[in-house]
């Protein structure tokens, strides 16, 4: 990947993670799943489920609790 694409991808990932912790997460989740579905429709449902799980872990981390998946890493 060229440097500009890496920077864009990194920025997008940071933005998505930041939005997962806000009230805008539902719109973010749907937009990411829809975008993913354009290129890999067979994985869109899985990506949406992973976003839900990631948000739960992020919120648990903020509350000071840790999920099983978070402890493994």
Question: What attributes does this structure have?
Answer:
single chain, 73 residues, mainly alpha, 0% strand, globular
Overall description:
With 73 residues, this protein is an all-alpha fold. The protein has helices at residues 3-20, 25-39, 44-63, 68-72. The two termini are 27 Å apart.
| Gyration radius from CA atoms, angstroms | 14 Å
> What is the H/E order?
HHHH
| Mean pLDDT rating | 79
User: Gap between N and C termini, in Å?
Assistant: 27 Å
Helix content: over 70%
Structural class: mainly alpha
Our estimate of the beta-strand percent is: under 5%
Q: Residue ranges: pLDDT <50 for 5 or more in a row?
A: none
Number of helices: 4
**Global outline:** globular
Strand elements, count: 0
The major sheet is characterized as: none
Give the helix/strand layout.
Layout: H1 3-20, H2 25-39, H3 44-63, H4 68-72
Helix pairs in contact: 2-3
Question: Can I get a quick summary?
Answer:
The chain has 73 residues and is mainly alpha-helical.
